[in-house]
Amino acid sequence: MQSRSRPTGAADPAGTRISSGNRGLDDILGGGLDADRMYLYEGRPGTGKTTLALEFLLEGARHGERVLYITLSETESELQLVAGRHGWDLSGVDVFELVPPETTLDPGREITVLHPAEIELAETTRLILDRIADASPSRVVIDSLSELRLLAQNSLRYRRQVLALKHFFASRQCTVVLLDDMSAQENDLQLHSICHGVVLLEQLAIDYGAERRRLRVVKMRGIGFRGGFHDMKITTGGLEIYPRLVAAEHHASFAGDCTPSGNPELDKLLGGGLERGTNALLIGTAGVGKSSLALTYAIAAAERGEVAAIFAFDEGRGTLQARARTLGLPLQPALDSGRILFQQIDPAEMSPGEFAAIVRARVEEDRARLVIIDSLNGYLNAMPDGRFLILQMHELLSYLGQQGVLSIMILAQHGLVGPAETPVDISYLSDTVLMLRYFEHGGVVRRALSVVKKRSGDHEHSIREFRLGAGGLVLGPPLREFSGIFSGTPTYLGNADPLLQAGPDAEE
Predict the structure, then answer these.
(1) Cβ–Cβ < 8 Å for 354, 396
(2) Contact 49, 41 (CB under 8 A)
(3) Pick from 446, 443, 489, 445: which is nearest to 464 by CA?
(4) For the segment 166-197, what is each residue's pLDDT rounded down to a tens digit?
(5) Where along the chain do its domains lie?
(6) Which of 55, 127, 238, 394 reaches 20 to 30 Å from 380, CA-CA?
C-alpha cells in the first residue's frame, strides 16, 4: 500500500490509511494504520519492537516522507548496527539521540545506574518537541516510554506528559509510534486509553527448540482487524509476521471431480476416487504403508501435469526417494520438473503460523492441487499447546477445501500389531478415512486396507489385503473369510487361501 505525504495544514481525507511497513501487520489490519494517529508497540525486550518501528519509518522514507526516530534508550550507532544486519540503509531516517555522550558513572553519586537522560522531564519533552517542529516529519518513533516514565517519577505526571505529546502531534498531521518495554510493574492501561491503537509483541520460551514470537493487536480504533495471536519471527530483512489463517476469507471456484490415484483397484475401493476440495486421513501403525499410498497419489498428480506439495515432518528427501525406487515410482523426474514440491519441516524450529503460510504459498503461488502432510504426529509436536491442534487443522483444511485442493493427512498410531492407540482424534474433520493395519496369517505379516468413512459418496465396505513392491501398490480381493483383522487378532474362517501370493518383488 502506498504511503501518503502531504504538506502541513492540508486536509486529511476521511479513511486515509498508510502502510505500517510490514506486509503481515498490514494484512492483519486490513490495509494499514490510520494516518495522523498515535500508536503503541509494547513488549518485553527482545520481542522485535525496534525492528517493527524501523520498518514503519523506512516505509515512509521509501515514499519520500520525512521520518524521525527519537531514541532515549539506544545510541545511533546501535541502531545503525541493527539496520546493517537487516540490510537496511538509514540514510533517509533522521535519528535524534537523547543519550548524552558525556554522561558517565560517578562513584560519588548515590545512584548505581545512570539514567539514559540526566535532565528533567520538561527539558526532555522540550527537546523532543523542538526537534519535531524543526523537522516537520510525517512519521515519528519515540523509543522508549520507559525513560519518560522514570523521569516523570509518578503516574499522574507521566500520563499528563503523554497526553501533552498526543495533543501536540494531533495538530501536526504526524503518525507516531511509541515503544514501551513494559518495565512497569503492572500493565500501563493509561497508555492503552490514550493511544489510537496498541500492538503487543511477545516472546515465548518453549521446553525444547527455538523460542516462539507472536503478535496481537490489542486495540485499533475504527479499524476492523484480525484478532488473536499471530506467529512471527525475526529474520534478516525484518519481521516475518504470519497472519492467523481464517478460512472464511478465502474461496475459489473449482470443479469437484475425482482425482485418480493411478491404481484402478484403489479408486474402485474408494467409490471412484477422492474428490477435489476434500481431505483424506490415512491412519495406521508405523511402516504399514501410509506414506507409500500418499506418494502414489502425488506421482499420479504429477503425471497429469498437476503440482503436488509434500510436507514431511518425519522423513527426509533421501528416504522418500528410496521408497519411490522400491515401489518403481518415477519420483525423480517429478521433483526435477517441479511437479512435486518436497519440503522437510523441523517442528522444533517452525511455528504453526509459519507452516500455514508456507502451505498457502504452495497453493496460491505454485498452484499445488494436492497437499500431503506427513505426518500429523510431527505437526502435533510443533504446537506449543496441543489443545489447539484441532482448531489449527480445522482452519487449514477448510482453507484447502475452499481452494479445491485435495489434502492427504497421515497419522501414525502407537503400536505395531494388536490394539493400536491414536495420539489425537482428528477423524471427525476428515472427509475420508482409510485404515491400514498389519495382520498375521500362516506365519507371515501382511497388510490390510479399508475405507471406514467417506462423506462425499459411497465406497466399498470390504477389507482388502494389499502389497507394496516394485510393481507399486497391489490390492487383493476382499478378505471375506477373515474376522478380526482390525483388532490385530484375525481368525480365518474359510477353506481356500484368499490371500495375495508373494512375488519376487514384494515386501514381506
Answers:
(1) no
(2) yes
(3) 446
(4) 889 988 889 999 999 887 655 567 788 889 99
(5) 17-244, 267-492
(6) 238
Q: Which of 144-148, 157-161, 287-291, 490-494 has the lowest mean pLDDT?
A: 490-494
CATH class of 267-492: alpha beta
- The topology under which CATH files domain 17-244 is Rossmann fold (3.40.50)
Mean pLDDT computed over every residue of the chain: 85
- The single-letter DSSP state of residue 57 is H
Cis peptide before 375 (omega within 30 of 0): yes
Radius of gyration of the chain (CA): 30
CA–CA distance, 34 with 18 (Å, rounded to integer): 6
Look at residue 364 in the predicted model and tell me its pLDDT: 95
CA atoms of 408 and 301, how far apart (whole Å): 13
Biggest distance spanned by C-alpha atoms of the chain? 102
Cα separation of 326 and 112, whole Å?
70
Report d(CA 290, CA 284) in Å as an integer: 7
pLDDT digits (tens, 9 = 90+) for 398-408: 999 999 999 99
Grid coordinates representing 193? 486509553
Grid cell of 19 as nine digits: 502502510
Could you give the C-alpha distances from 263 to 22, 271, 296, 321, 449, in angstroms and in order? 47, 13, 8, 20, 14
Write the CB contacts of 263 (distance below 8 Å, at least 6 apart in sequence).
296, 472, 473, 475
Query: 374 in helix, strand or coil?
Result: strand
Burial 344-364 (b: 16+ CB within 10 A, else e): ebebeebbbbbbbbbbbebbe
**185 three-state secondary structure:** coil
C-alpha cell of 314? 518425519
Whether 4 contacts 16, CB under 8 Å: yes
| DSSP symbols for 61-124 | HHTT--EEEEESSS-HHHHHHHHHHHT--GGGEEEEE-S-TT----TTSS-SS--S--S-HHHH
pLDDT tens across 30-57, in order?
Answer: 999 999 999 999 999 999 999 999 999 9
* Domains 17-244 and 267-492 alike in fold: yes
